[in-house]
Automatic annotation (TrEMBL):
Name of the molecule in the record: Ferrous iron transport protein A
Database matches in Pfam families: FeoA (PF04023)
Entry GO MF terms: transition metal ion binding
Ferrous iron transporter FeoA-like domain sequence ranges: 1-79
Domain of life of the organism encoding this protein: Bacteria
Listed SMART domains: FeoA (SM00899)
UniProt cross-references to InterPro entries, sorted A to Z: Fe-transptr_FeoA-like, FeoA, FeoA_core_dom, Transcriptional_repressor_C
Keyword Signal included in the entry's annotation: no
Record key words, sorted: Iron
Length: 92
């Protein structure tokens, strides 16, 4: 499931990022990777915009980012195991 489809206030783990064919989307994936959206990281949608759920306020570590829906569609996430935030990672 992609991050834009994930429910708010439910932590998830980044599974992988998309491998798009267009250069514009590849640049977005690179940017997301550079700011920390990498496999294994825990993310949490803190809030969404009123119209169309955009932008998404996404918590990654101790930082909150505002993502557009098309950016969140590039991040594939999965459920966390019960009570586990991942190796070396804490969930606030």
């Amino acid at each position: 499931m992609t991050l834009d489809q994930w429910p708010s206030h439910v932590p998830a783990r980044v599974r992988e990022l998309a491998r798009p064919s267009s250069q514009d989307l590849r640049d977005l994936v690179l940017r997301l990777t550079e700011i920390g959206f990498v496999p294994g990281e825990v993310v949490h949608i803190m809030a969404t915009g009123l119209l169309g759920r955009e932008p998404l306020a996404v918590r990654l570590g101790h930082t909150t980012f505002a993502l557009r829906q098309r950016e969140a569609q590039l991040v594939d996430v999965e459920a966390l195991d019960a009570g586990v935030a991942g190796p070396g990672r804490e969930w606030p």
